[in-house]
Every structure is written in structure tokens, then in C-alpha cells.
Amino acid sequence: MLVFVACVALGGCRRSKPQQRGDERAPAAVLRLLPEQARFVAAMDVARVRAAPITAKLDALRVVFEPLVKQIDTMTAKTGIDPWAQLDSVALGGVSLQTDLAVIFRGRAIDETRLTAYAREQLAAEGDELIARKLGKRTLWSARKRPDVVGVFLDGGTLVIAAPGWAEQIVERADDAGGGAHSAASNPELVAACAQVSASPLWAAGALPDEARKVLQDDLELRAIASMKRATIAVDLAEAVVAKAAVDFGEAAQADELAEDLAALLARERRAKRDSPYMQALFKGLTEYADGSTLRAELRLENDVAVRMAETTARFINWNKPANELPVPTTRALLMKPDWLSPPSTIVTLSEVRSYDAWDRRTHALFEVTNRSDKPALADIRIRYRDQDDKRLDERPCQVPMLVLLPHESVGCDTGLPTGAASGIYTIRTAPDDRAAALAASSRATLTVVGARLEPPREAVQWLAGKVKNTTTGVVRVARVHATFYDADRKIVGYGDAVAQPPQLAPGSSAEFRLASGPLFAPAKSFSAIAYSVTLPKQPR
After folding, report:
1. Contact criterion met (CB below 8 Å) for 518 and 494
2. Alpha-carbon torsion 184, 186, 190, 192, what sign?
3. Domains in the chain and their CATH numbers?
4. Residue 383: enclosing H or E segment and its boundaries?
5. Which of 4, 135, 193, 477 could bridge 205 with an S-S bond, Cβ 3.0-4.6 Å?
6. pTM greater than 0.85 (yes/no)
């Protein structure tokens, strides 16, 4: 848990000549501390991560690690120790993630008195207590109810969290000037694996022990990887995030076979996830190949792509949270006015805009579009946003999802708000009545919403559930529902659009739908819903 709190891990395990005791920050020092049973090390250079171009842009990930972030913020407030600023490195090493394991924190002014006082206070609040046990000139700290995790301060700049047996071995090696003869530094495969990647700010390396290789050899399904010697991952942070993985085998044939299997798997996944921009961005930057007896894979993501993926992850995490755990929407000032060069439409009108910052880390410009006539309406709605100095920032369209609005129908629209926008000038152009009527007849099927109801508020969005019935005489390929949500004054607070399941409906048949509002301006008290299906008109050749 402490590794995720810090969001960092470093260390080092390059092969090097024995060093003086004063060089405690050298990479080889980590392997000298770990017991010889260690089979992997994962690490990150905190200073280099702090300075990486992408780091400052990844504030969205605070949402992902929010409970841990709050814990670390509370600890900083009470102890004056800021891990992000004071840590130089963190290294994680062990046999597996479930068994013998150690985390080594290195930094500046890691105050034992302050941290143990804070731990004692936290444990007391849980009905537990901090237990101290002397081992030589150092103290082993553990919780009475959880003695399987031990902390020990090796000096004013090094804290180790480990299993009890490993903590004791690390303490014994802390003052050993013999070069780590019985430590992980004596494992040539692990040392070689670390040497391949430890120059990167984030890396991991592991070596497969002989006993594990024998187990694989006896397993028919896993025999193909029985000659695997070591595996490494290195992540570099510059103008792009570049992750490189390598698996070294004893035989080139096994590297070739695994490369072919991986290529086939990726081809299947690309086809299966072709509708997911998130996954396609990953696949686009992914390459893999056999290089002699080594299988290599590389993932390259430009920083802006990686940031967008972080934002998507943060929104997904927030989406599933209860509303009371999310920040309240913050209203933004935005003046909306019609274009004085184009007379305002009396057929299609816009409601008062509601602009706000929401939990999805976006600024919204939400309004309702209404057809006030007795005929179908086809509208082209565009908003030109301008800053405080009345300089143009961006132009954004408002799309009507069902293409044509039938008489007195209303839909929600949210164009989002460019950074620095202070006003929006809107233009509404409507097509001739006969064209709108023809498009409504040829491209839109109007269905019936049955039994729609607001679900009790539970999560970050308001859910609407019900059924769609095909009351037309034709087969509907994709039945959809658009809902607009209102407050007690019948003003728009959000909207959503969803596909019914199953989407294809025969005449007279029904399908269920469940629709989410998206981030709301205020709690929803009522709604209106439109069930429809569209067939896009053919474009002229």
C-alpha cells in the first residue's frame, strides 16, 4: 500500500564494484540489502519522475488513488514529512507479491520519531497499538494486530517495510561491508536483468530460479516457456511514454513461438476492441518481435495521449462513486447572446445556458434545444466562444442526436467550454419546412417510451430505466433513447443518450434501456424522454 501511496519505486541493482559504506544511494545498495531469495525488483527514481514533462499533467490520477492521497496528505499535515518532495527513491523486491517482500524508501529527513508517533495515533484510532522490538541498535516496529508487517529505520534517510524475517535479515546486512555475499547481489541472473534496465526512471527486473524452471518443464501447457531466464521492463519519460519489455529465453525457438502467439492474440484483440478509442490508442503504439532468443515488446504513447487516457480513467473511477463523495459542481459565468448579424430563430430556440465545472474534470455549457413550431425542424446550431477581451476562441456545433426535431420536442446539448471563455455567440439556421419533413420521414423512426422511471440517486450520475416499443411497421436496427433531466423549476440540469438492449426491434416488440445523465448541474427532479432510430441519409457522390 505504501508503494501506491508514494506512487514511486526506485532502487537499483546494476553489477558494480564493491563501494564504500558512504555511498548508500548507489543502485547496488538495494540488492545488497535484499535477502538472496529475492527474485524480482521494481523501482522508480522519484526525482526524475518529479521532473518528467508528463508528471504535472497527470493530476487526474489523484482521483484513482484518492483514498491513498488523502492518507498521505493527512500524514504530511501532522508530521511535516512530504513523501513526494522528500523521497529520492523507493524499491520493491521479493519472491512474490504474496510472500516474502520488502519495500525500501530512501530520502531526506525521514524522521523516525514523527512517523512512529503518527503511526501510533492512527493505530490507536483503530483499537490497535504500535509495538517496538529492539534488534541490535535498531528498533523493529509493528502493529499488535498485524505482526506480519514490520518497519525499521536503518538511518535518517532509509525506511524499510518488510515481512518480519526479511526485516531482520535486512537489518543484519545494513552494516555489512562485505559486498552482500549472501544477498540478492549474489544472484548473477538478477544482477544482469537489473543492469539492462536500471538506467530508466521506472523499471522492473526478475530472474526465474532453477526450481521454477523445472516445474514449468514438467507442465505440458507451460513447457514452451521453461527456458525463460529473466524478464525486464523499462519505462522512459520524455516527450513520450515509452515502455519496453524483454523476456530472455535459453532457446530462440521459444522466443519465436511466443512472439507468434502474442501477435495472434493482439490481432484478435484489435478486432474485438475496434470500437474502443481507448484500446486502439494502446494498440497503435504497441509492437512486438523476437530478437534471437529474446522476446521484445514496446509500447509508445505520446504524452498528450497518455494524459487523455489518465483523464478517461479518472472519469470512470468517479462515475462509480456515490454523489456525496464527489465535488459539488462549480458554476461558471458565461454570457450567451444571439448573433446580431443573423436574426434569432423563432422555430428552434435555446434555453438559458448552465455552465459549470463538474467531477469529470470538464467545464460544461449545457442548454436545452426546443422546436416551438407545429412542424418538424432541422437546425444547424453553432456557438462561437470568445474570451474576456472579446477575442474568438473556438466554434462548436450543437448536434441534435435524432437529426430532426418533431413538433414541440426538446433535447439537451452540451458543447463544453473552451478555457478562458467568457461569452458565447450562437447562430441558429433552420432548413425549409419541406426538407425537414422529408428528412423526418426518410431518416427518423419515432418509437414509444414505456414505463420510464428515475432510479434512486446512488452514483455520480442520475439513471433512467424503462422500455422502448417499436410502434412502427418496419424493423428498427438501432433503437435509442434520449433523455433530458430537469430541476424543480423545469430547467435543464443534464441529459443522456443510450441504446436499447437488444438494439434491433421487430414491429410491436420491446427492449429495455438504462440511461445515464452525465455530470449534473443540480439534482434531477423530473425528465422527458424520446425514443428513436435514425438512418443517415446517403451523401451525394
Report:
1. yes
2. positive
3. 2-228 (no CATH), 238-319 (3.30.310), 330-534 (no CATH)
4. strand 379-386
5. 193
6. no
